[in-house]
Design goal:
Layout lengths: L7 H7 L1 H14 L6 H14 L3 E5 L2 H11 L7 E5 L5 H8 L3 E5 L13 H4 L4 E7 L8 H11 L2 E5 L7 E2 L2 E2 L6 E5 L13 E5 L2 H11 L3 E3 L2 E2 L10 H10 L3 H19 L5 E2 L7 E2 L5 E5 L2 H10 L29 H6 L3 E4 L7 H18 L1
Parallel strand pairs: 2-3, 2-4, 4-5, 5-8
Antiparallel strand pairs: 1-9, 6-7, 6-13, 8-9, 10-11, 12-14, 14-15
Helix pairs in contact: 2-9, 3-9, 4-5, 4-8, 10-13
C-alpha cells in the first residue's frame, strides 16, 4: 500500500469537472490577471469566512509583509512571533526593517506559549504575529488581551488554520488582520502560489489592496509606491471551484484525525496531538511526537508511507537568525520538538484502511525496536 503525504491528484479527480470547467473558462475569457474570477473569489471567501474584506495577493508570504508594511511597522520596531514556524513568519518581519523576536512554544499545543509573552514585550514592540500551526489555534484570547493592554497590533498567520475555531470564532478574526496561504497542499489550496489578507478594518483593507497593486486602486493612478502581488485569474477560478467543498473537507480531516487517535492509542513511544478546549482543530497536519523519530520516519518510508517534519529546525536555531541569539535567549521546547515531531499523512480522501496501515506500521516499528 502506497500512501502519499497529500493526495492532490485524488482530490482533483473527485472534482475534475469543476476544476476543468473553471480553467477552461479563464482561458476562454483570457482573464489571467485580475478580472471577474479574482473578484468572485474575494466575495466567496469573504462570505464563507464571515469577514468584511478579502484582499487577494500572490502568496501567503506577501500577505504577511503587506499587512505589516501597511500598519507602519518598520525600522526600530519589534514583532513577536513563534519559534517553531515556517520562515515566512519571521523573514517578512525583517523585510519591513523590523526585528523578529521569537517566543518559545507551548509544550502541549506547539503554538506560541502565551504565558511567556509579557516578558518579551518591550517599548519597541509594535505587533504580535500569532501563528496558528497545524490547524491548532493559539490561546488567542489571552494573546489578544495582552495586545490590547499594551496597545500593540495582533496579526494572525492562518496559513495552516483555514476554518479553525476558538470559542466559535474563526482563526483570523481576532486581530487587526490575518494572512492566508493557498499553497497547493493547504486545506484550501490553489494549483500554484496564492494568498490573501482578511480584515474588518476599512482603511487597512484599502491600503493593503493599493500596496499589493503597485500602489494603485485603478490603473495608472499610483497614490503610493507598492509591490506587484496579484492573484492569478487561473488560481482564483480553481479556488472558487473548491470553496463549495471546503467545509465538508474540513469535517473529513477531523474524522481522519479521530481515526488516527483510535488506531494509535496505547503506543507509549508516541504522543498524539492535544487539542485546546473550546476549539475546532482543522488538522492541516496531524503531528505526533515520536521517540527515535528519524528511525521511525525511515521505517515508514520503507513501507511506502510518506511523512514530513514541520519543522526540522526551530527558527531561532537556523543560520539565518544566529545574529539574533544571545546567551540569555533559550528556546528549550521548540528545540526539543524539532527532534521529535513527525507529520503523518492526512487529507479528506485518506481511507480508514490506509490510516490503519499507517498505525500498524508504527506499532510494528516499536515492537521490532523493543
Amino acid at each position: 500500500m502506497k500512501i502519499p503525504f497529500v493526495n492532490l491528484k485524488k482530490q482533483y479527480l473527485d472534482i475534475k469537472s469543476d476544476i476543468d470547467n473553471a480553467i477552461a473558462e479563464v482561458i476562454q475569457e483570457t482573464s489571467f490577471i485580475g478580472g471577474k474570477h479574482v473578484k468572485e473569489f474575494e466575495k466567496n471567501f469573504s462570505e464563507i469566512y464571515g469577514v468584511k474584506h478579502v484582499i487577494s495577493c500572490a502568496n501567503g508570504t506577501d500577505s504577511l509583509y503587506i499587512i505589516m508594511k501597511m500598519l507602519g511597522i518598520g525600522v526600530g520596531d519589534e514583532v513577536i512571533t513563534a519559534a517553531n514556524s515556517w520562515i515566512s513568519s519571521s523573514e517578512t518581519i525583517t523585510q519591513t526593517g523590523a526585528r523578529p523576536v521569537f517566543l518559545d512554544v507551548h509544550p502541549e499545543y506547539y503554538s506560541m506559549d502565551e504565558t511567556l509573552l509579557r516578558r518579551k514585550i518591550t517599548n519597541n514592540t509594535k505587533a504580535v504575529m500569532a501563528v496558528h500551526l497545524q490547524g491548532q489555534m493559539c490561546a488567542i484570547d489571552a494573546i489578544k488581551k495582552i495586545c490590547v493592554e499594551r496597545g500593540i497590533y495582533l496579526i494572525e498567520d492562518c496559513a495552516q488554520s483555514h476554518f479553525s475555531l476558538f470559542e466559535g470564532l474563526r482563526a483570523g478574526l481576532f486581530g487587526i488582520a490575518a494572512s492566508f496561504s493557498f499553497y497547493p497542499g493547504k486545506n484550501l489550496g490553489a494549483y500554484g502560489d496564492a494568498g490573501c489578507i482578511i480584515t474588518n478594518d476599512d482603511l487597512l483593507a484599502e491600503k493593503c489592496r493599493m500596496y499589493a497593486n503597485h500602489g494603485a486602486l485603478k490603473k495608472h493612478h499610483h497614490v503610493i509606491e507598492g509591490i506587484n502581488s496579484r492573484l492569478d485569474g487561473l488560481q482564483a477560478a480553481i479556488l472558487n471551484a473548491k470553496i463549495p467543498y471546503i467545509l465538508d473537507w474540513t469535517a473529513k480531516r477531523i474524522e481522519k484525525a479521530e481515526l488516527y487517535r483510535k488506531y494509535l492509542s496505547g503506543i507509549e513511544s508516541l504522543i498524539l496531538p492535544k487539542q485546546r478546549e473550546n476549539t475546532v482543530h482543522s488538522y492541516h497536519l496531524f503531528v505526533v511526537r515520536a521517540k527515535r523519530r528519524d528511525q521511525l520516519a525511515e521505517w515508514l518510508k520503507s513501507k511506502d508511507i510518506e511523512v514530513a517534519i514541520h519543522y526540522p529546525t526551530a527558527l531561532p536555531n537556523l543560520p539565518a537568525y544566529q545574529y539574533l541569539k544571545s546567551e540569555n535567549e533559550k528556546y528549550p521546547i521548540a528545540t526539543q520538538l524539532q527532534n521529535e515531531i513527525l507529520s503523518l499523512p492526512i487529507y479528506p480522501e485518506l481511507t480508514e484502511q490506509e490510516i490503519e496501515y499507517v498505525a500498524n506500521s508504527i506499532k510494528d516499528f516499536y515492537i521490532n525496536e523493543a
